[in-house]
Amino acid sequence: MTAGKTTGDWFASLYQGSYRSLVLTAYALTDDLGEAEEITQEAFAVAYGRRTRVEHADSPEAWIRTVVVNIARRRWRRRAMLDRIMRRGHAEPDPPPPTAGEHLDLHAAIRALGRDHQAAVVLHYLADLPVDEVASILEVPVGTVKSRLSRARAALAEQLRAEEMDRA
Amino acid sequence: MPDLDGRLSALRDELRATVPVPDVATVAERFQQRRVRRRMQIGAVAAVLVVSAAVPLLRQLDADPPPATPPPAPTTSATDPENFPFLYQMGFADEEHGYALRAQCAEQTAEGETPCELFLFGTEDGENWARIGDIPDRPRLAGGLGQLSVLGKDRLALDWFVAGVPNASDTLRLYSDDGGRTWEPVPVPDEPVEEVTEIPDGGVLLPACVGGRGGERCTEPGVGVLRPDTGTSARLANQPDLEDVIVGEIPTNDGYWWVAGRRPGTGAWALAVSSNDGRTWETTELDWPGTPNEWSVVDQRGTLYASAARIMGEKEDGLLAVFRSDDQGKTWQLVWQPTAAMSIPGFDGTLVAATDGSLTANQYGPHHQPYTSTDGGRTFVESDQRRFGVVEWTRAGYLAVAETTYEISVNGAHWVQFDIPVG
Fold this sequence. Notes:
The structure holds 2 protein chains of 2 kinds.
Chain A: H1 8-30, H2 33-49, H3 51-55, H4 60-85, H5 101-112, H6 115-126, H7 131-138, H8 142-167
Chain B: H1 4-18, H2 25-44, E1 47-49, E2 86-92, E3 98-105, E4 114-123, E5 129-134, E6 143-150, E7 156-161, E8 171-176, E9 184-186, E10 194-196, E11 204-209, E12 213-214, E13 217-218, E14 221-226, E15 233-236, E16 243-247, E17 257-262, E18 269-274, E19 282-285, E20 294-300, E21 303-310, E22 318-325, E23 333-336, E24 352-353, E25 359-361, E26 371-373, E27 381-382, E28 391-394, E29 397-401, E30 405-409, E31 416-419
């Protein structure tokens, strides 16, 4: 007495292989790792309900990433609208999640970047996405992404150099 | 210059390591929760049907029906899978002929409306589905996505409930007798003016106001019949002597019609069963004080099982009781109730009575574990018969619908999955 089909190994493999990367993608858009995890879980639930379509997509991971981005964007827009209604200024970012001490300063430096540069850095360097995909997610030209990454790297290098000198 | 690339790579690895990966089984659980949540949202707000760019399909009563036109392409956006048209409702005339509705809804507007498009699909072999067309527009006051009734191989009705409109019926109905290709509005007066002595072949049993209204409220709620030949509602001549009725829309596997309700005067819960298409009813009072808001009756091999449940109440109680009848509904035994040690709080839909004698109660939401009884409903143990969606009884067997796919079982034991295309 079994169902005609199950989700199969492919869905579990997709989940295990892409979950963390997708969380970091959402993190780039939400600035909150907990919310990024929640968005990613929601996106996989959406994909589960459409798994036949996802299985036959050119890139199942890209399919789910699109859902992640859409959910994150939707939430960001609602929050921005609420902020405007409540006349709230941009809140100070929460402290970064606990990581090993040697990377905490880099993480903090990334979070201190402007939102646009932070998103580009997280998507490209932490979520490992190519520049053209970062451009698609952020809805900006590839040249803009490259420019933001370049400026972000310069700012991070300067920040880290200054901190090293302070410690010295 | 510090090794920025190296440190970025190390930070990436560290962040990934800090992200816990929940068990993949939680994905299915979340999907079920999401589906229940979404149906509540869509059913509770006023929905507006967006007229797609197509020739209107409403048939004028005195005019020839318009020529068939190919349905427009679905408005699904490949870049927005979040609004993928999901399977909303299905119904069958028999094992081969069925219909399905997909709904594609945009985000809720500032006015609190959720614009939705409805697409109709049909099958003539029980396996392969084709898109028939869109559902025509209907007035903005109607709420929800509509209730589909399949009345025959080519006969369908769609009902919307309209509340609070002065001097107007509470129900808006569209009816089709050509398999959903064209539709016409059918009047549904608050009190049916027609009467039938039996439920016709393909007919659907519905709650109806049969005895007058006191202001906005029906003073004598009873049962009516949705007629397949006209799409109109008729009063059933011989009413079961019950109040607060919850009706079984279609008969059980063995052909029994059923109505649950309260006895006038005592208020005790009772079950009414008809083996002759509603001509007469065998009504039995249950000695049970529960407070269900859902009932369901299924049968197998001559035994009737009734489930009483409380769904989406203030307190999620799930399955409240199982009753069993071995004499066509003349007498009922209470065979199961929850205890402190054993409950089935996530139950919804119907029990599944299989040809092997087993009885399964499926759960949804955070309680996903199904339970099966092999002793006539007296005791239940955990089983692995998890279904994609809430199980309901149809004229094609047991049905469980997910967002893009469904499972069906004619015997409650063996399930087969089918997909319905988007367009």
